[in-house]
Amino acid sequence: MMKLEIGKIIMACRQYHGFTQVYMAHKLNLTVNSYANIEHGRVDIDTERLYQLAQILHLKAYQILALAEKASATNEACWLPAAIKAALATNYHFSDGK
How is 28-42 classified by DSSP, letter by letter? Predict the structure, then answer.
C-alpha cells in the first residue's frame, strides 16, 4: 500500500543527511540488500523498524508516515527537502527544551 512512499521518504531523509545505504544497513543490523529493499518498497516494515529508522534519521515515526502520506497524494517531490528540513527543525526545537 504505502510501502513505496515510505521507502521514498526514508531514502530522501537518508540522502538529506548524507548517509549511505551501507551506513543505514549497519545501524539497523541488516545487509545492504535488505536495507535497499526497504527504500524501494519491496518489503513491509514493522513499527519497531520504523522507530529505529526514525531515530537514525532524527525524525519521529509519525513524521515519516505523514510525509509518506503527502507523497502518495502528489507525484512531485520538489516539496520534500523543505518538508524534511522543517520536520528536523521541529524535532531540534523540542529536544532543545525550548
Answer: HT--HHHHHHHHTT-
Residue 19 gets which letter from DSSP?
-
5 closest CA partner among 51, 57, 73: 73
**Residue 92: per-residue pLDDT:** 63
Is it the case that residue 58 has pLDDT exceeding 90?
Answer: yes
72, 2 Cβ separation under 8 angstroms: yes
- Please name the helix (run of DSSP H) or strand (run of DSSP E) that holds residue 70, with its range, or none: helix 61-73
Contact between 68 and 5 (Cβ < 8 Å): yes
Q: Are 17 and 57 in contact (CB under 8 A)?
A: yes
Q: What is the pTM of this model?
A: 0.86
